[in-house]
Every structure is written in structure tokens, then in C-alpha cells.
């Protein structure tokens, strides 16, 4: 009986424990089950109302910035960063982690994702699918095969990349070795140059020392003669005093007579050496031959680039395909064909771009417009280069110097249609130089004429009007002078000062069809308007950054429609006005982009195409704007620009640009 009683008690306690365990499991299952998907929580997030849901479930039911809780129907606001910004329910997370280590996974009554039968299932940790016990092995085998295939693909791609990187490292190591060899060559050339310079120094110093020794020897001889003459002179003075004090001849007087005869012979000898034999007076000079930066250049280091072909097997994203106007195809074969065709087109486009970049080693900008069309028949990209007139090899005129074909900071340019001559202000050489339209040197106009008349002093800007009169801004005298073609002064426009109608620092001028004269006064930060006879008419501007104000206006030119463009040098922009000073338009700001400037200077206007050319001096480029003042292209030069100052347009489509920092002209 006792054993039976004990058995009943044990069975009762066991059943009670089983019931309590079942109840505990059900209560825990309710805590970790999402109210929306009725599955175990995946990334549990807690709303402000303290109810918890899966992150994916919240994203699915949330459509705008506000939502309602599916349990209590309370409103909540979605953070700007999205649903993922809600607070994570750490209690649920910790409970799920503890269950994974201590207890078996809660069993859910649902259908298996594989066999579709209702059975006791568990949730796969990988894909979160409901899988029954019978299908778990099959499901794991599928998972294993999938991961193995991905690992195999990754391994193959990794091996390809490793081989490619090894090849790249080898190429870079070869480049490092080659760069070391080039560095040694440069060091040897510099050492040879230094040795030659030292030899030249030794030769020149030897000549100077020889001259110095010869002159020192002559100094010693002259000092000896001077000493003898001083002794004779002193003897003559003393002897005259002694002779005047004596009354008759004695032995001392006889000695004086004998010594005087000896000194007479000595004086005659010295006289023949000093006066009769003319000793040439020698002079030493050193003619310094300045070595220009071009002369000491040892060469240049060229860094070439080779574009590797793009493999057609590269998988392009749908975004990239859409940018190339290629619609993703449902079949693999058509997609591969499109990719292969597109890759060939890309190689051609990128090769053309790289070829353009390799032509500009000095950082000069290519002269093509950024017009890219992506809508041809096959839907692939192609690039249209439009700078047809500005891709010729430039002709270089001049270098730093004082000769006829050399310059020192050339500035303004002007063209005489009647004479077909190009005038250049060679400012620091204090002269005007003329060339033919083919770039052949013609004549130099110096500051002083043949008759001694002072024409100018450091010409800074030049302009030739429709009547072939020459307007010249004199930098040092701060005067605007008007000459005829015989270089005879006609009149002076305005006068120096800061009052109304006066200018303090004129830097450029132009005339329109009515022969009104417009002057850039950089010192007064304004534009002045004069009549043909030099009478002041109008002024506008002032120091500032607003439209219609200036900060050192640099250059001005006439546009079609009685308009004029002004390069606002200090404000890094171009302003357009009518001839009455009304502001019409401002172009650009400070920067390096295509429609931006950094210290713009010279302007030129093509009346036929209505395009405006701007010398962007700070960015070392020349920008072209079309009729509506949108940027079309950059003027291209294979050697680049260095301080472009002014620009001149010729009828045959060529362009002449003066570079004041490079001391030269370029004809493009």
C-alpha cells in the first residue's frame, strides 16, 4: 500500500510538472510571438505604446509618417530615419537568446514550408521558414548546397582578383624601379650641369684674377714712380731755400747743383714714361647672360596612362543599365549581348576621354563641350566633340626678352582692319609691336618718336575704332590718348582724378558703332562713357558686390544690341549692361567649374556666332559662352595657358591670346 501510494504521488507530481511546463511554454510563446505575423519575433521593435512587433511587419503596415498600433490602435509618429529608429525591445531579445541555449525551440502548430503538412515545426535560423522535423535535413542540404555554390563562386572570383592584383603590384614595382632609374638620370644631368657651371665659374674668376694681378703690378710701379717724384719735389723745395740764404758759392751749393742735374735726368726719364708713352687705361666689365627658365630646363617627365578594356562579363546594375538606356532583359543571352556591345562603346568613349586628358599634362582644360548624347539606335553612349575651330596646334610668338620678337608682360591686343595688322601692348618694354595676321613681325613703335616727341609711357591697353583711330591707355601717366595712323596725337580723353567725369586708374576701353567711348576705371570701380570728342556723358557702378557694382573692373567689349560686357575682376564675374548703364545680366561666380571664374580679364565677341570669349586668368583657361550666355566649350591649346590676359578674334576663325605671365602670344 505504501509503495502504491508513493507511486501515485510520484505520478501525480510528474503530471503536475508536465502541466506546469506546458503552461510555461505557452506563456513564453505568447511573449515572443509577433501579433502581426504570429511568428517568433524577428528584430523586435517597441512602439511608444509599449507594444512590440517585428521590424519587417512594421515596415509593411507603415505607409507615411504616421501609423496606428495594431493592438491598441494608438497613433505613433515614424522617425525621420525610418521604422528602424524605434527602440529595440531588449527584454524580448534577451529572452530569445536565453531560450536558444537552455530550452528547445517553442513548437508552433503551422504548415511546413516544404511538405505543406501540419506538423510540429520549428523556425529555421537561416531563412526563418517554418520547417517540420522530417524536412529539416532536406532543408539543410539545400542550404548547404546554396552556401557551397556561393563559396565556390567567391573563391573563383577571389583567385581572379588575386592574380590581377599580383599583376598590378608587379607593374607598380616595375614603375618604381623605372622611376628610380629616371631619378638617377636626372641627378646625373644636374650634376653634369653643376660641374659645367663650376668650370664656367673657374674660367671667369681666373680672368678676373689675372686682370687684378696685372692692375696690382701697375699700382706697385706707379707707387714707386710717385715715391721718386715726391723725393725730387721735396729736394727742390729744400734746395731753393738753402740757395736763397747763401751769399756765395760753397761746397753745399755745388752738391746741390750736381744732385739737381741727376734729378733732371730722372725727371726726364719719368716724364717720357708717364706723358710721352701713353699707357692704356683698362676697364673690366661683366656682361651678365641671364639664364631663362626655358634654358635650364632638363626636359620633362611624362606620365602615360593605358586604359584597360572592360570585360563584357561584368554584371552591370540596373541603375547603370538605365543610365545607358539599356533595358534589362528577361533572358540571359540578350542581356549579355547588350552588355558586350555596350562595353565596346564604353571603351571607345573612355579611350577618347583619356586621350584628351593625356594631351594636357600641364592641367590645361580641353576645349570640348560637355555634350553627351545617349540615345543612338543601339542605345549606347557616344560623345560629340564640338570644338572644331580650336583644336589646331598653336603657333607661339615671342618669349621673355627685349628684342623685337620678345615681350615683357604683353597685355592688350587690337586689330586694324584697314592695315590688317595686330597691335600688341608690350607694357614693360614700353613699346607697341605690330604683326601681320600670319604672325609675322612688322614694326616696333617706341615710347619716343624719331623727332624726340614722347608718345607714351608703359602702354597698358589699346583699341582701334571703325575710323582706324588708335586709342591708348598710358599706365604711368594715366591718360587716354587718341592717335591717327601716322601716330600723331589727336586728343586726350578725360583727365586723372576722382571727381565726376575723371578716372583714377583706367585699364581698358572700347567704342561702339556711334563712336561712344566706354572706359573701365579700376581705381574708381566704375564705367565711364564719353562722346567721340572726349566729352563726359555718363558714369555708373561703384565699389560693391551687388548687380551693377564693381570691384576693379578690368576689361570691356561691345555686344550686339547696344550692349556691353564688363569683366568684374574682383568679384569673379561678367556683367552685361546696355549703353545707358542699366544692368541686364550677371554671369558666373568664383570657382573652377565650367561657368565659374577666378579673376577674369580680357573679353572678345564674335558678332557672327554671337559668342563671348572670356580670359579666365586665375584658372588659366579661355571660356566661350553662346548667345544666351550658357557655357559651350573651352578654347583648347596643347601647351595650355599661363596667365591669359587678352584675346583677339580673326575673320578666318583663328584666335590670338596674349599671356602676360608666359611673355608670349598664341595663335590657335
TrEMBL record:
<dbReference type="InterPro" id="IPR001258">
    <property type="entry name" value="NHL_repeat"/>
</dbReference>
<feature type="repeat" description="NHL">
    <location>
        <begin position="541"/>
        <end position="580"/>
    </location>
</feature>
<dbReference type="GO" id="GO:0000209">
    <property type="term" value="P:protein polyubiquitination"/>
</dbReference>
<keyword id="KW-0863">Zinc-finger</keyword>
<feature type="coiled-coil region">
    <location>
        <begin position="155"/>
        <end position="203"/>
    </location>
</feature>
<feature type="domain" description="RING-type">
    <location>
        <begin position="34"/>
        <end position="73"/>
    </location>
</feature>
<dbReference type="Pfam" id="PF17170">
    <property type="entry name" value="DUF5128"/>
</dbReference>
<protein>
    <recommendedName>
        <fullName>RING-type domain-containing protein</fullName>
    </recommendedName>
</protein>
<keyword id="KW-0175">Coiled coil</keyword>
<keyword id="KW-0677">Repeat</keyword>
<dbReference type="InterPro" id="IPR017907">
    <property type="entry name" value="Znf_RING_CS"/>
</dbReference>
<dbReference type="InterPro" id="IPR013083">
    <property type="entry name" value="Znf_RING/FYVE/PHD"/>
</dbReference>
<dbReference type="Pfam" id="PF00097">
    <property type="entry name" value="zf-C3HC4"/>
</dbReference>
<dbReference type="GO" id="GO:0061630">
    <property type="term" value="F:ubiquitin protein ligase activity"/>
</dbReference>
<dbReference type="Pfam" id="PF01436">
    <property type="entry name" value="NHL"/>
</dbReference>
<feature type="repeat" description="NHL">
    <location>
        <begin position="584"/>
        <end position="628"/>
    </location>
</feature>
<dbReference type="InterPro" id="IPR050952">
    <property type="entry name" value="TRIM-NHL_E3_ligases"/>
</dbReference>
<dbReference type="GO" id="GO:0008270">
    <property type="term" value="F:zinc ion binding"/>
</dbReference>
<dbReference type="InterPro" id="IPR001841">
    <property type="entry name" value="Znf_RING"/>
</dbReference>
<dbReference type="InterPro" id="IPR018957">
    <property type="entry name" value="Znf_C3HC4_RING-type"/>
</dbReference>
<keyword id="KW-0479">Metal-binding</keyword>
<dbReference type="GO" id="GO:0043161">
    <property type="term" value="P:proteasome-mediated ubiquitin-dependent protein catabolic process"/>
</dbReference>
<feature type="repeat" description="NHL">
    <location>
        <begin position="396"/>
        <end position="438"/>
    </location>
</feature>
<keyword id="KW-0862">Zinc</keyword>
<dbReference type="InterPro" id="IPR011042">
    <property type="entry name" value="6-blade_b-propeller_TolB-like"/>
</dbReference>
Amino acid at each position: 500500500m505504501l509503495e502504491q501510494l508513493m507511486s501515485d504521488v510520484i505520478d501525480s507530481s510528474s503530471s503536475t510538472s508536465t502541466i506546469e511546463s506546458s503552461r510555461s511554454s505557452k506563456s513564453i510563446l505568447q511573449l515572443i510571438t509577433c501579433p502581426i505575423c504570429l511568428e517568433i519575433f524577428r528584430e523586435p521593435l517597441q512602439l511608444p505604446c509599449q507594444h512590440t512587433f517585428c521590424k519587417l511587419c512594421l515596415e509593411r503596415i507603415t505607409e507615411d509618417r504616421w501609423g496606428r498600433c495594431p493592438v491598441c490602435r494608438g497613433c505613433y509618429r515614424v522617425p525621420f530615419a525610418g521604422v528602424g529608429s524605434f527602440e529595440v525591445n531588449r527584454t524580448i531579445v534577451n529572452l530569445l537568446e536565453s531560450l536558444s541555449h537552455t530550452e528547445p525551440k517553442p513548437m508552433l502548430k503551422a504548415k511546413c514550408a516544404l511538405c505543406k503538412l501540419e506538423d510540429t515545426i520549428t523556425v529555421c535560423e537561416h531563412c526563418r521558414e517554418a520547417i517540420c522535423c522530417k524536412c529539416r535535413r532536406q532543408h539543410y542540404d539545400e542550404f548547404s548546397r546554396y552556401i557551397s555554390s556561393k563559396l565556390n563562386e567567391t573563391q573563383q572570383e577571389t583567385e581572379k582578383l588575386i592574380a590581377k592584383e599580383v599583376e598590378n603590384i608587379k607593374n607598380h614595382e616595375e614603375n618604381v624601379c623605372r622611376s628610380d632609374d629616371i631619378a638617377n638620370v636626372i641627378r646625373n644631368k644636374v650634376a653634369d650641369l653643376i660641374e659645367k657651371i663650376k668650370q664656367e665659374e673657374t674660367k671667369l674668376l681666373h680672368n678676373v684674377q689675372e686682370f687684378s694681378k696685372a692692375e696690382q703690378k701697375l699700382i706697385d710701379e706707379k707707387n714707386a714712380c710717385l715715391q721718386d717724384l715726391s723725393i725730387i719735389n721735396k729736394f727742390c723745395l729744400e734746395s731753393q731755400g738753402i740757395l736763397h740764404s747763401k751769399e756765395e758759392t760753397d761746397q753745399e751749393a755745388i752738391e746741390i747743383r750736381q744732385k739737381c742735374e741727376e734729378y733732371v735726368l730722372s725727371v726726364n726719364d719719368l716724364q717720357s714714361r708717364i706723358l710721352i708713352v701713353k699707357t692704356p687705361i683698362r676697364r673690366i666689365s661683366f656682361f651678365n647672360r641671364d639664364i631663362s627658365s626655358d634654358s635650364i630646363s632638363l626636359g620633362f617627365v611624362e606620365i602615360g596612362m593605358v586604359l584597360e578594356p572592360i570585360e563584357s562579363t561584368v554584371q552591370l546594375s540596373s541603375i547603370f543599365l538605365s543610365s545607358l538606356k539599356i533595358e534589362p532583359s528577361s533572358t540571359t543571352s540578350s542581356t549579355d549581348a547588350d552588355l558586350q556591345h555596350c562595353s565596346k562603346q564604353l571603351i571607345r568613349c573612355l579611350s577618347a576621354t583619356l586621350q584628351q586628358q593625356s594631351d594636357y599634362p600641364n592641367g590645361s582644360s580641353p576645349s570640348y563641350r560637355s555634350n553627351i548624347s545617349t540615345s543612338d539606335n543601339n542605345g549606347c553612349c557616344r560623345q560629340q566633340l564640338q570644338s572644331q575651330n580650336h583644336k589646331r596646334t598653336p603657333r607661339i610668338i615671342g618669349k621673355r626678352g627685349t628684342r623685337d620678337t620678345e615681350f615683357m608682360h604683353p597685355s592688350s591686343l587690337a586689330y586694324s582692319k584697314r592695315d590688317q595688322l595686330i597691335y600688341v601692348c608690350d607694357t614693360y618694354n614700353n613699346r607697341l609691336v605690330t604683326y601681320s595676321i600670319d604672325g609675322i613681325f612688322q614694326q616696333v613703335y617706341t615710347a619716343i618718336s624719331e623727332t624726340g616727341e614722347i608718345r607714351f609711357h608703359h602702354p597698358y591697353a589699346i583699341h582701334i575704332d571703325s575710323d582706324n583711330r588708335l586709342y591708348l591707355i598710358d599706365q604711368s601717366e594715366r591718360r587716354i590718348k587718341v592717335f591717327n595712323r601716322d601716330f600723331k596725337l589727336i586728343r586726350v580723353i578725360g583727365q586723372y582724378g576722382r571727381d565726376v567725369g575723371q578716372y583714377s586708374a583706367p585699364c581698358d576701353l572700347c567704342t561702339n558703332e556711334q563712336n561712344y567711348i566706354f572706359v573701365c576705371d579700376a581705381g574708381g570701380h566704375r564705367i565711364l562713357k564719353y562722346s567721340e570728342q572726349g566729352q563726359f556723358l555718363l558714369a555708373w557702378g561703384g565699389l560693391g558686390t551687388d548687380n551693377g557694382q564693381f570691384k576693379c573692373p578690368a576689361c570691356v567689349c561691345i555686344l550686339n544690341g547696344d550692349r556691353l560686357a564688363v569683366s568684374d575682376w574682383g568679384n569673379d564675374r561678367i556683367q552685361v549692361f546696355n549703353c545707358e548703364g542699366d544692368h541686364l545680366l550677371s554671369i558666373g561666380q568664383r570657382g573652377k567649374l565650367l561657368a565659374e571664374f577666378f579673376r577674369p580679364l580680357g573679353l572678345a565677341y564674335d558678332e557672327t556666332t554671337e559668342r563671348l570669349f572670356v580670359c579666365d586668368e586665375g584658372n588659366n583657361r579661355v571660356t566661350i559662352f553662346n548667345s544666351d550666355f550658357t557655357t559651350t566649350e573651352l578654347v583648347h591649346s596643347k601647351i595650355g595657358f599661363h596667365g591669359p590676359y587678352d584675346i583677339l578674334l580673326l575673320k578666318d576663325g583663328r584666335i590670338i591670346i596674349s599671356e602676360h605671365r608666359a611673355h608670349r602670344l598664341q595663335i590657335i
